[in-house]
Design goal:
Rossmann fold, about 325 residues, 7-stranded parallel sheet, alpha/beta
Length: about 325
């Protein structure tokens, strides 16, 4: 008998068709009664596929047949791993396929914030361009400036390569531990958090959200940054204390910020909207046609292996898988 899969995010028709080859598939209709659809689907589901919904004890308690969840994302901070462990529910994610695309977006934010691309685009379209621009609208250089990476994982390293080899930027980094191979490849120097904040011209936040990294950058840390420095966040909103960041941007205690993620998404009625030195994007780090397709395929592949046999490529909680094999 086919197992049941509930898809709680948008999925392209060809991916739906692929899933239907092996599973009974039900799809969340975003225009319908969301709570009623979850209530109907969860008790039957052996597998879940999608992105961006908080899944903890309260949400998953009714899902008594659930064996695996395939998240179409690299981040999985919206899952309660302790509860998944308790329930023996396997969780997979989609690393690797989004690394370069997300690094591209990080660099786009960096360039945009430094050269005021978004701000001046709006200025031109508002009809303000009457004469050659003067120093009031100048930006700052990117090439040759010091690039500070908080979290030199795969995406952090991909941003660092762009900076080092494309823009001649010295790279410094802070994270859980030293990365000798990347230090050699990038000529990167390890710094304490405080040293990095004081030295970098660009601080790129690329750490996963966890209890250790929640509000990693707050008022104290922002005060350590240079007044000319630019902060980029493509990780998760709560890694920054957003209220403290807004104050720092408003008072020009740092130069600018490039943000793709926020404490509460979608971002609505935020003081950030009034700040020309904040570039605000709608959580689009991996949002290209090619990469979203690759992520969906990787997630489906993981789910097929988890429910049909074979080892999924991207297991977040390997102890669950190990118990299942024992
Ligand atoms: O934020 C996006 C992801 O985690 O893939």
């Amino acid at each position: 008998m086919k197992k049941n899969v509930f898809v709680f995010s948008r999925l392209a028709p060809e991916h739906q068709a692929r899933l239907r080859q092996h599973f009974n598939v039900s799809l969340l209709d975003p225009d319908g009664d969301i709570a009623a659809q979850y209530a109907a689907a969860l008790p039957e589901a052996h597998g879940l596929l999608g992105v961006g919904r908080p899944f903890g004890r309260a949400q998953l308690e009714p899902a008594r047949r659930l064996e695996a969840i395939a998240s179409i994302s690299v981040g999985y901070d919206n899952y309660d791993l302790t509860y998944l462990d308790e329930r023996d529910i396997l969780l997979t994610n989609t690393p690797d396929v989004l690394t370069e695309t997300t690094a591209d977006l990080g660099f786009a934010l960096l360039m945009s914030a430094a050269r005021r691309v978004a701000e001046l685009d709006a200025w031109v379209k508002a009809g303000h361009w009457q004469a050659a621009v003067g120093p009031a609208l100048f930006g700052g250089d990117v090439h040759g400036k010091t690039l500070g990476i908080l979290g030199l994982g795969k995406i952090g390293a991909a941003i660092a390569r762009r900076g080092r080899f494309g823009f001649g930027m010295p790279v410094i980094y802070h994270g859980n531990g030293r990365k000798p191979e990347l230090e050699a490849e990038l000529g990167a120097g390890y710094r304490s958090l405080d040293e990095l904040l004081g030295e970098a011209d660009f601080v790129c936040v690329v750490v996963p959200l966890s209890e250790r990294t929640r509000h990693l950058i707050g008022r104290r840390e922002l005060a350590l940054m240079k007044p000319s420095a630019i902060l980029i966040n493509i990780a998760r909103g709560p890694v920054l204390d957003e209220a403290a960041l807004i104050e720092a941007l408003r008072d020009r205690r740092i130069q600018a910020a490039g943000l793709d993620v926020y404490e509460k998404e979608p971002l609505k009625d935020s003081p950030l909207f009034a700040l020309p030195n904040a570039v605000t994007l709608p959580h689009i780090g991996s949002a290209t046609h090619e990469t979203r397709r690759a992520m969906a395929e990787r997630a489906i592949d993981n789910l097929e292996r988890a429910l049909l046999g074979g080892t999924p490529r991207d297991i977040v909680n390997p102890q669950v898988w190990a118990r299942r094999q024992a």
